[in-house]
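Whiteboard transcription, Tuesday session. T.W. wrote the structure tokens on the left side:
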């Protein structure tokens, strides 16, 4: 369809999992994509669309000093950014009574603080242009408490609220800020469940009305919608994409 033709997008975590599914969808719809990753190699990204429309910026978003310099350099290189998708993240499961402070700090810094920094840095540019689409990838743990993922749940709940707060400030400036809350999606992050813990995997399938785990490409459609002109009057929402898991 080319609904994102000539648009420039930044996708953090865009070389694997959900981020890669969104990257594929954006490229198919005509966008150019700048992937932000710790160590992505364009020659190793398994992608079906044109790689000449991809650029790579290797940044550790949990490192405040390096991300500040490199993100500003990236913005200068790209010249214009129409779409920002924050899809990076880390989860370090552990019992809350034994949760290390370092792991808490790493999770919050990576999942929440760095996302605010990216929204702030790119948002200034979008406000100047009176146009922009920011899509934060939250989680169903923005609604659920989870088990042994206190830091991750806190970070994703915070991300959902950050989405609403920024939307309240920036919607009148032509910048739409929304979020997607993925359900159980087959990625490396949870491979230990869908490949090894078959009992738990089946429990998830049984509760999901769609009758299956989601795949990364299932995230592309909602992201394309929120990145396009079709969502111009949608602001501050967190859309569950979970096969109906939360509805049961």
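and on the right, the sequence the group agreed on:
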């Amino acid at each position: 369809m080319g609904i994102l033709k000539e648009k420039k997008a930044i996708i953090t975590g865009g070389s694997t999992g959900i981020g890669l599914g969104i990257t594929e969808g954006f490229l198919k719809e005509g966008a150019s994509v700048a992937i932000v990753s710790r160590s992505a190699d364009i020659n190793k990204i398994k992608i079906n669309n044109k790689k000449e429309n991809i650029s790579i910026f290797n940044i550790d978003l949990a490192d405040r000093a390096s991300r500040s310099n490199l993100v500003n350099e990236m913005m200068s290189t790209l010249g214009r950014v129409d779409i920002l998708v924050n899809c990076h993240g880390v989860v370090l499961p552990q019992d809350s009574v034994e949760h290390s402070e370092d792991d808490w700090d790493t999770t919050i810094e990576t999942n929440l603080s760095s996302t605010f920094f990216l929204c702030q840095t790119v948002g200034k540019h979008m406000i100047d242009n009176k146009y922009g689409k920011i899509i934060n990838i939250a989680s169903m743990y923005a609604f659920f408490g989870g088990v042994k993922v206190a830091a991750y749940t806190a970070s994703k709940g915070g991300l959902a609220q950050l989405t609403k707060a920024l939307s309240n400030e920036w919607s009148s400036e032509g910048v739409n800020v929304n979020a997607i809350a993925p359900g159980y999606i087959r990625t490396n992050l949870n491979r230990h469940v869908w490949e090894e813990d078959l009992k738990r995997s089946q429990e998830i399938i049984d509760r999901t009305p769609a009758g299956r785990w989601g795949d990364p490409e299932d995230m592309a459609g909602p992201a394309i919608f929120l990145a396009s002109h079709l969502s111009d009057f949608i602001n501050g929402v967190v859309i569950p994409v979970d096969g109906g898991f939360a509805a049961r």
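Someone added at the bottom: DSSP finds seven helices and seven strands in the chain.
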